[in-house]
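We modelled the chain as a single entity of 175 amino acids. Its sequence is:
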Amino acid sequence: MTVSTSRRLIVLRHAKSAWPDVSDFERPLAPRGRRDGPAAGHWLRDSGYLPDHVICSPARRTRETWDLVVQELDATPPVSYDERVYGAGVNTLLDIVCEAPVEVETLLLVGHNPGLQELTLALAGEASGDALERALEKFPTSAIAVLTFAGPWPELAPASALLADFVIPRGKKKS
């Protein structure tokens, strides 16, 4: 079996969360987040960015986001809930991504800011269009960054990827 050396990392910030009187880890999605999660799944599917594997923070808002996203995909990739993603900085997130199985070509990382924005900016050695400027300016809830690079996961390093896409899918309010 030949393993491709082309890799794609999709970075998804969780959808908009609510602020009830619970711990940060247990915060659920807000109504807007419950609309935006499916919109993110639609965008991934329609853009052909279907992950082979998902690494997700175990926090409630990230798990709920993933549950909404996956319902819109044409596949159900395996998901790993990794406690290290919650509150992680760029170095920890990069370590987690570099541990991805060799056969995974498209990895989806579902997590939190500021770590996801910092990871995206650190990895992007170049970008398509104005994607880098937009990711630098703001990385709001439900934002998706798509990074591509050549080589195995353990060789992913700062400035080694192309920021191919950066979008902020939004769901529509029901009338």
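As a brief sanity check on the tokenised model: Residues 31-47 form the longest helix (17 residues). The radius of gyration is 15 Å.
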